[in-house]
Amino acid sequence: MKPAPFEYHAPVALDEAVGLLGELGDGAKVLAGGQSLIPMLALRLAFFDHLVDLGRIPDLQRVERVDGSLRVGAAVRQSAVEHSAEVAAAVPLLARATPLIGHFQIRNRGTVGGSIAHADPAAEYPAVALTLDAVMEVASPRGSRDVPAADFFTGTWTTDLADDEVLAGVRFPTWEGRCGFAVEELARRHGDFAIAGATVAVELGADDTIRRCAIGLFGLGPVPERGTAAEQSLVGASAGDVEPKALGKQAVADLSSIPDDAHGPAEYRRHVGGVMVARAWQRAVEEARHA
Amino acid sequence: MHETEVHVHVNGADRRMRVEPRTTLADALREELHLTGTHLGCEHGVCGACTVLVDGDAVRACLVLAVQAEGAEVTTIEGLTPDDGTLSPVQEAFRANHGLQCGFCTPGFVVSVTALLRDNPDPTDDEIREGLSGNLCRCTGYQGIMAAVRQAAGR
What we know:
The structure holds two protein chains of two kinds. By secondary structure, chain A is an alpha+beta fold. Chain A has helices at residues 14-24, 37-42, 78-82, 85-90, 92-97, 104-107, 112-118, 124-131, 149-152, 228-234, 244-253, 266-289; strands spanning 7-9, 28-31, 50-53, 63-66, 69-73, 135-140, 143-148, 153-155, 158-159, 166-173, 178-186, 196-204, 210-218, 225-226. Chain A has twelve helices and 14 strands. Chain A has a five-stranded antiparallel beta sheet with strand order 4-5-10-6-7. Chain A has a four-stranded antiparallel beta sheet with strand order 11-12-13-14, sandwiched between helices. Chain A has a three-stranded parallel beta sheet with strand order 1-3-2, with helices on one face. The model of chain A has no long low-confidence stretch (mean pLDDT 97). Chain B is of the alpha+beta class. Chains A and B meet through helix 2 and helix 6 of A and strand 4, helix 4 and helix 5 of B.
């Protein structure tokens, strides 16, 4: 099994990479860790005349704190995130979602930016980015721009990125105070894409009042979703008054494009999604109470 | 289609090969360097038979392009075996515990387990199962492999 032929480019700076993308147009594709792109090329589900590899650009491999956020370079490997004390402390949800991605051999190559730009609807990182209102740093020959996660994912495997744009990094806001974070997913086997999954971030006041919360849903539509109505109903309530199962049902009630395929009918996935929300909610609240 | 020259350090030796950019590291190791211990099962990242170490990290060689490995240190199953023809402790444990039957998946398992035990020398059974989850074996039912990893870990 071989990909169709292509030219390979290995720029050593971001400017050089976006210059190549500008020059090569829509025949070029960015290669990050390659753990989704290379199989798609091998199976000939995708064809490109040029691959522009981000793997030799040192600037894209940095993790740093910037103004209330943790900035993660697009080419930072998932295994680096998994084993980083700084990520675990600053963005616990990102750290906790990581072991759910594939297998350790995949995470040794796969990158943060690659997973988010690939935008698989059942992937963990896009849901984490959406849940935390992360900001995508996008570079092109025309300059750079910030894209909020809510505007970034536009469909299955499609994003707001233009052909000459590259995702250079992601800023994940850090939450302070009595906070808790959890991710739950159901997959047939360890490392498979989830049938459905949920992420929860919650901040409690001293009296257990819910000050803010975010619920992310994945595997439940062409793009990751937020349980916005459920979130709004929670703010100001006491965490002790929330019935997790009812919250789960509420969070998935409005979803209208749940996949219906060999891995499970839509109504089953909706049910699983609600259960995942309930479990994640309980764990996140428990953590916040002890924070 | 034009070929490009790639330099890699494979099992301790500097090697050069001429490959098309689309050539995977797995194909390059097998066809250019004749290191046929690296097996190809699914060729799209599911089975783990082609697992090798790149700069010490266990990776699927079918999901790495040879050109991406330029300048890297690559260790294959051949490089894990002592020069005197004896077996590595992981290989010995697989043999002693019926950790293989047909043997097709075995090189990938041995490379993965070698990396797993290097990073976590005393894994729990759950950690072993998670560490093995990226490699498929259709013969053994995995119990012999579990026993082999426990033995290699000195349990």
